[in-house]
Amino acid sequence: MGYPTIFATGTLKYDNEKAWSGYTLFPSARGALLIDMNGNEVQRWAGLDGFPNKLLPGGYVLGNSGRRKSKYAYQDQLDLIQVDWDGNIVWKFDHTEEICDDGRTKTWQARQHHDYQREGSSVGYYAPGAEPKVDNGNTLLLVHENVRNRDITDKLLIDDKIIEVDWAGNILWSWRASDHFDELGFDETAKNVLYRNPSVHGEAGGDWMHINSMSTLGPNHWYDEGDERFHPDNIIFDARNANILGIIDKKTGNLVWRLGPDFNESEATRKLGWIIGQHHLHMIPKGLPGEGNLLVFDNGGYGGYGAVNPGSPTGNNNALRDYSRVLEFNPVTLEIVWQYTPLEAGFLLFTDASKFYSSYISSAQRLPNGNTLITEGSDGHLIEVTPEHEIVWEYINPYFSNVAGNFYNNMIYRAYRVPYEWVPQLEVPNEESIEPIDVETFRVPGSPIGKDKGKTTVVEGIDPNHNPRTFEDKDDEDEDINFCVASVKKSDLENIN
């Protein structure tokens, strides 16, 4: 899909009767940015990085002071810090590993990446009755560790590791992905591809799994009903480069639930469809609509290791799809409970599916009223959609970063909506609905509005108000739609995966 060079940013639409109103936090080129529903910037922690940023009750925010800059590192953050409303650091962790990048000076670094979780909240976003702790408690961090494991490859690996630290920074528990290679479900073809090229990033090593989300399951009805796999302390994660989703038994470290990397392995996985390059897998917390189901932003794009094909001559990133899906599904039956795909977004044709598409980053958050906040991250695009798929809030990040010297990107890694009461420093804003603009008549200043200003010629025998791009039979679910090259039913389009 092509993009215009100029387009509207900020809040584009807001229905204050249907949206779940609060503040929205996201990392931007200007630092950690907190906005209200009308798009007003109510607080900015300048320069604070966020992989991601998370807001805590009392107006505290978690983030990073900077990223490790070295040819030996890939996406490592120097630390994880908690700052108060005024920017004072009230907690810091940076003691994962002592690093000597310049060959002379050793420094302690966190090597945190992609996710973390403070005790008290199972997923790091708002759920009734569950609040992350602000002045005590343990913290789970997703970190990197370089390892060599010849069962996987003869190359250096950037391994994913999960650690739990107490308030004083002592490491209490750890888990490393490479120690569980035999539990991950790779077939021999995938193992061969992985051995030759484990997603190598130069001297930094092979980012073979690329785990990008991690959280505890928290209280849930599955465990209450006797399913030990879903113990509240167990940890759910997803690995973007491997197309793997899994749950770790906190006591043993073993995987007790796994989905992928092969989505053809059963009738249930085939019906679910291939989940590719996914982000932000988590269990919907207790107290929110859909509690106990899994929610994930299924990016599409590319991912996985396996047989070569025209889109993957080496077998790396051999699973391909050019559109995204947000899926809510049952973790036991794998049945889809709710989804947001190009079809629900209103794009009828397969050729338009890429209009809902973020091949990297992105996330989804379930809100207390049943709506879902979706971060379509690559375009800096946030939408809140109802269970019926109506967009009731829409925002585009106005801040762009210079990438590689010649390309500007307004991406948002992950956004979170929090209740007004978590920010006692501010009065609850008086926010008004924003009606979306009419894109047919909207013009930048100085540009003439062309609609109906020129001569209109009526063609004999045709209703001048008829839209030739509209299907007359759109309300009939089983009516055939005839194209030049094929005939399909609308019901068939619902099965696109």
UniProtKB/TrEMBL annotation:
Residues 453-476 are annotated as: Disordered. Keywords: Transferase. This is Arylsulfotransferase (ASST). InterPro entries: Arylsulfate_ST, Arylsulfotransferase_bact. Transmembrane segments: none annotated. Pfam families: Arylsulfotrans. It comes from Pseudobutyrivibrio ruminis DSM 9787. GO terms for molecular function: aryl sulfotransferase activity. It comes from the Bacteria.
